[in-house]
From TrEMBL:
This is Methylcobamide--CoM methyltransferase. The lineage of its organism: Bacteria, Bacillati, Bacillota, Clostridia, Eubacteriales. It comes from the Bacteria. Residues 9-341 form the Uroporphyrinogen decarboxylase (URO-D) domain. It comes from Clostridium polyendosporum. InterPro entries: Methanogen_methyltrans, UROD/MetE-like_sf, Uroporphyrinogen_deCOase. The keyword Nucleotide-binding does not apply. CDD domains: URO-D_like (cd03465).
Length: 351
């Protein structure tokens, strides 16, 4: 199997300029699977930035993908604002109780302090360690949850969706305080020298309508992305589930790259917004990466490449979302081997 001839930073920089590269950029989105790389429990990451950094650095060194993402779960910001998060012994954390028991408590909410609250200081420590160790060869990003999604963890997802109809003013208040928290966290990430990577699961059309997205998610994403751009950083935006009806809004929000979940079509995205934004995706995390064989991963990767390799604004092969914890390491290797084997420029007739 061929080896990389460029570092990740060299590859992305050249790709952005339309210059020669050795292979297509590839990012299997490794989250808690990194725990398996170094043989620790997922719960060991809580409150331990050094261990989180070690896991992500070693996972990167093993596979040499094109971006490191410091991430454990979606609740980092909400926990720092008072939400109760349950940490299973060896799986991804989940929301146990929202920060608020009712809208009458909304005025008690305060934006987070990224240097003091919850596990955020440990995540920042992990970013700094990763940057110091491998930042000269690969970009280090920190997962940043979008304001609408974070708002859902403050009041509860079902309650938030109901409130978009019954009491939109409250939803905007929750989004505003979530935006301020996101801006503070984004500033801290960028001050270290890393890049925020936006994820906004609850803004999906699987959860809310395009009209609700336009009213309750888009304005806050715009402000957040404007800030990140003002600091000289590009933005990748991931929204889970079905997103084809809001791709234009994701572009309007200012995203430089949109990460397409496996519930959507890369080909459709290319035809609809590919002249405006880079695409990233979308090998199935569960059915293929977790449950499939290396041959399944290779086939699915090639299928994605066929659909989007010629996207006008560029394409990054990736998993459709963060990989499940138990994703076989040989399947991650198979995705990376596939892009190395294909090389660049891509000859579609050979795929």
């Amino acid at each position: 199997m061929s080896h990389d001839k460029m570092t990740a930073l060299e590859r992305i920089k050249a790709y952005n300029k339309g210059e020669e590269i050795d292979r297509l950029p590839c990012v299997p989105i490794v989250g808690n699977t990194a725990a398996r790389v170094i043989g620790v429990k997922v719960s060991d990451f809580r409150g331990n930035g050094k261990l989180l950094a070690k896991a992500q650095i070693e996972a990167y060194k093993l596979f040499k993908y094109d971006s490191i993402r410091i991430f454990t779960d979606l609740y980092t910001q909400a926990e720092a604002m008072g939400a109760k998060i349950f940490y299973p012994y060896d799986e991804t954390a989940y929301l146990e109780e929202p920060a608020l028991s009712g809208i009458n408590e909304i005025d008690t909410l305060q934006p987070l302090n990224p240097y003091k609250d919850g596990n955020i200081p440990q995540h920042l420590e992990a970013m700094k360690i990763a940057l110091d160790n491998v930042g000269k060869e690969v970009s280090i990003t920190g997962a940043l949850v979008g304001p609408f999604t974070n708002a859902s963890f403050l009041i509860g997802a079902e309650s938030l969706v109901r409130l978009t109809i019954r009491n939109p003013e409250v939803v905007h208040k929750l989004c505003e305080v979530s935006l301020e928290s996101a801006l503070r966290y984004a500033k801290a990430i960028i001050d270290i020298g890393c890049t925020p990577s936006l994820t906004d699961a609850m803004s999906s059309c699987t959860v809310i309508s395009p009209r609700q997205f336009k009213e309750f998610s888009l304005p806050y994403l715009k402000k957040l992305i404007e800030y990140i751009h003002s600091r000289g950083k590009s933005v990748t935006l991931h929204i889970c589930g079905k997103t084809n009806k809001i791709w234009d809004y994701m572009v309007e929000a200012g995203a430089d790259c949109i990460s397409i979940d496996n519930d959507a079509s890369l080909l459709e995205a290319k035809l609809k917004v590919g002249d405006k934004v880079r695409l990233m995706g979308n090998v199935r995390p569960s059915e293929v990466m977790l449950q499939g064989t290396p041959e399944d991963v290779k086939k699915a990767s090639i299928d994605c490449i066929k659909e989007a390799y010629d996207n006008p604004k560029g394409f990054i092969l990736a998993s459709g979302c963060s990989l499940p914890t138990e994703t076989p390491l040989e399947n991650i290797k198979a995705m990376m081997d596939t892009v190395r084997e294909i090389g660049y420029p891509i000859n579609i007739q050979n795929l």
